[in-house]
Amino acid sequence: MGQISSVLTELIINLPPEKCGFLVIMKDLLQKKERLIERLGVYLECRDQLAPLAARIVATLILTGKQGVTFDELVANLGASKSTISTHLNNLQHTGRVTYFTKAGDRKKYFIKSLDYLVRYLDKMIENWDREKKLHVEMVNYKQEITDHSDATDEVILDLAFHKKYLTFLEQAISSMKDIRRDHTNEANND
């Protein structure tokens, strides 16, 4: 991305002021994208235990969307060697995080994030929250039994209130995530 940003800077310097407004906006957007790729890359690196460059490739694909990114664009924008980009792309494809498409009459591959991987990620998130919810239900039931068979202290009552509120949160989160998953799957099927 740095190379594109520097090319835009050169264009802006050499254009009359009335013609460089759009280029200034584009340069600003590209700089924001560069910073966001770095931040998202660090997040993905930690969350998914990805190598730094692999995380930045995924971040680039997320921010680029359905139009895809070519191999050459990744090399130019991420400032890594062809062999390193190739190694990480192959690994990301092998793990199902990244896929590609081609365009008629164009020999290039356009890499995009895998829709299947996102669905699997959402399923895993729902599964984890559901498991956590079941555990909290057991804790509430246990604490309720203790409360029913003894003098309930304010501490036990407050603790029960927390668990009940947390269960409500988990139920809402699970329901919302299922809606997102359903909408995403329907949208992907319509493309």
Task: Explain what you see.
The protein is mainly alpha-helical and 191 residues long. It folds into two domains: 2-113, Winged helix-like DNA-binding domain superfamily/Winged helix DNA-binding domain (Arc Repressor Mutant, subunit A, Orthogonal Bundle); 116-190. The protein is 76% helix and 8% strand. The chain has seven helices and three strands, in the order αααβααββαα. Strands 1-3-2 form a three-stranded antiparallel β-sheet. A hairpin with a 2-residue loop joins strand 2 and strand 3 (106-113). Helix 2 packs across helix 3 and helix 6 (115-148) runs antiparallel to helix 7 (154-190). The two termini are 29 Å apart. The mean pLDDT is 86.
Entry keywords:
three-stranded antiparallel β-sheet, elongated, mainly alpha, 3 strands, Arc Repressor Mutant, subunit A, single chain, 191 residues
Itemize the secondary structure elements and their pairings.
Layout: H1 2-14, H2 21-48, H3 52-64, E1 69-70, H4 71-78, H5 82-94, E2 98-103, E3 106-113, H6 115-148, H7 154-190
Antiparallel strand pairs: 1-3, 2-3
Helix pairs in contact: 1-2, 2-3, 3-5, 6-7
Arithmetic mean of pLDDT = 86
The amount of beta strand, in percent, is: 5-15%
Helices and strands, in order, run as: HHHEHHEEHH
Strand adjacency order, main sheet: 1-3-2
Second-tier CATH architecture of the largest domain = Orthogonal Bundle
Distance between the termini: 29 Å
How large, in whole angstroms, is the Cα Rg?
Answer: 24 Å
User: Low-confidence parts, pLDDT < 50 over ≥5 residues?
Assistant: none
